[in-house]
Design a protein that fits this description.
CATH class: Mainly Alpha
Radius of gyration: 24 Å
CATH superfamily: MetI-like
Number of strands: 0
Number of domains: 1
CATH architecture: Orthogonal Bundle
Strand content: under 5%
Helix content: over 70%
Largest sheet: none
Number of helices: 12
Structural class: mainly alpha
Length: 288
C-alpha cells in the first residue's frame, strides 16, 4: 500500500510539468491532423474530406521535396556522426589545450542557423571568398558556380557544421564513459587496436550514435533557414513547401498535410535507423 501511494505521489508531482507538455503537444498534433482532414478551415466550410490528402499525394512537387529533404537530412545526420566519432576518440586522450579545442568545436552551437547560412553563402558565392582566392592564386580563370547547387551539398555541409558540436557531446559522452580497465582487459586477452575498437568501443557507443542520428535527422528534416538560403532553387524542402503553401497561397489544409507527412517521415526514419543499428549494439558471440 505504501509503495502504491509513493508511486501515485510521484506521478502527481510530474503531472504539472508533464501534463503541460502533453497538452501543448497533443493539442498541436490534434489541430494539424484534423486540419489536414478538412476541419478548421480559415475560409469556406469545414467538413471531413480526404481531398487535401489526395491532391498533395499526387503533387510531383511534394514528391521531389520529400526525397530531397530525406536525402539531405540523412547525409547531414550521418556526416555529423562520422566527423564526431573520430574527434571523440581523439579528445579521449590527454591533449595540451584540450579545453580550448573543445570550445572551438562547440562554437557553432552559439551561432544562429540563419547567420551561419548567410556566412556560408558569402564564402561560396560567385564572387565569394573561395572563388576570389582561387582566381588570385591563378588556379581558375573564371568563378565557379557553387551556390545553391541542385543536389543540396551546401545544405549538407551546413547541417554537418551546425550539428557537429551536438553530435560530439552525445558520442563523446559515450566514448568517455568506457572505462580504461575494459580496454586493458581486451588488450590482455590479445585484442589489437582495431579489435578493441570494433568489438568493444563500437558496441558500447552505438546507443549514443543511434540517438544522435535520430535527433539530428529530425532537426534537419524540419529545418527552414539552411534550405531557404543555401538550398537549390529548383526544389523545395518540406519546411519551405509548407511555409509557401500556407503563407503565400493560403492553403492551410494542404500545409497541414505536409506537416503530418513531416511527422510521419520522421517517425518512419527513426524506426529505420533503430532497426538498422540495434542488431549491432546487441550482438552476441561465442567466447573463444
Amino acid at each position: 500500500m505504501k509503495s502504491w501511494r509513493n508511486d501515485l505521489f510521484a506521478w502527481l508531482l510530474m503531472l504539472s510539468g508533464l501534463g503541460t507538455i502533453l497538452l501543448l503537444m497533443g493539442s498541436t498534433f490534434y489541430m494539424v491532423v484534423v486540419q489536414s482532414l478538412g476541419w478548421f478551415n480559415l475560409s469556406g466550410e469545414s467538413h471531413f474530406s480526404l481531398e487535401h490528402w489526395r491532391n498533395m499525394l499526387q503533387d510531383p512537387v511534394l514528391h521531389s521535396s520529400l526525397l530531397y529533404s530525406i536525402r539531405v537530412s540523412l547525409l547531414g545526420a550521418f556526416g555529423s556522426v562520422l566527423f564526431a566519432y573520430p574527434l571523440a576518440l581523439w579528445l579521449r586522450q590527454p591533449l595540451p589545450m584540450k579545453e580550448g579545442i573543445i570550445a572551438i568545436l562547440r562554437a557553432p552551437m552559439f551561432i544562429p542557423g540563419l547567420v551561419a547560412a548567410f556566412l556560408f553563402v558569402n564564402i561560396i558565392a560567385y564572387h565569394g571568398i573561395i572563388n576570389e582566392l582561387l582566381i588570385a592564386l591563378r588556379i581558375i580563370n573564371q568563378p565557379l558556380r557553387m551556390q545553391n547547387d541542385d543536389f543540396g551539398w551546401g545544405v549538407v555541409i551546413l547541417q554537418i557544421w551546425k550539428n557537429l558540436p551536438f553530435a560530439l557531446i552525445l558520442v563523446g559522452g559515450a566514448v568517455n564513459a568506457i572505462r580504461n580497465d575494459i580496454l586493458d582487459a581486451a588488450n590482455n586477452l590479445g585484442a589489437n587496436r582495431w579489435q578493441r575498437f570494433t568489438n568493444v568501443i563500437v558496441p558500447l557507443t552505438l546507443p549514443a550514435v543511434q540517438v544522435t542520428l535520430i535527433l539530428v535527422f529530425i532537426g534537419a528534416l524540419g529545418d527552414f533557414a539552411f534550405y531557404s538560403i543555401a538550398g537549390p532553387r529548383n526544389t523545395y524542402s518540406l519546411a519551405k513547401l509548407m511555409q509557401t503553401t500556407s503563407m503565400e497561397y493560403g492553403e492551410w489544409n494542404n500545409a497541414a498535410v505536409i506537416a503530418v507527412i513531416i511527422m510521419i517521415t520522421a517517425a518512419l526514419c527513426t524506426l529505420l535507423i533503430t532497426s538498422l543499428i540495434k542488431p549491432f549494439s546487441t550482438r552476441k558471440g561465442d567466447i573463444k
